[in-house]
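Internal tracking record. Fields below are filled automatically when a chain is submitted to the structure queue. Please do not edit lines marked as system-generated. If the sequence contains nonstandard residues, flag them in the REMARKS field before resubmitting.
Queue: standard
Priority: normal
Entity type: single polypeptide chain
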Amino acid sequence: MADIFSEEKRSYVMSQIKSKDTKPEMMVRKFLHANGFRYGLHNKKLPGKPDLVMRKYASVIFVNGCFWHGHKHCKTGTRSPKTRQEWWKEKISKNRKRDLKKITELLDLGWNIITIWECELKPKKRDKTLSNLIKTLKKNQQ
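SYSTEM-GENERATED OUTPUT FOLLOWS
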């Protein structure tokens, strides 16, 4: 099946996708702030520029989009675009390798890593995901 957009239009549409302040990220930030947690954002000095940095809990949080980071456990993360399939396969594979490298570097620096996937913030799973986040942070504080 051919793409519904021209190559130029598709390029423009993809360029408009944000990497910071996404809806899932904002949801996590608002939840944490409402529950009394404070954090830093996108610290450039840390490998991978984590979405949230919580020094008090020695934790960093990545809020990952399932498609862009190749989430293996959901439909969105394993779905392949109809056009340029080899390019997309390589792109997502490189993203996953880069993520793994940055996580390893953060672990070596003594940080706890928390990854929240976009699909875990859908209405049916959101409450459980966010309550588990608080439990994990409190456990990391000890």
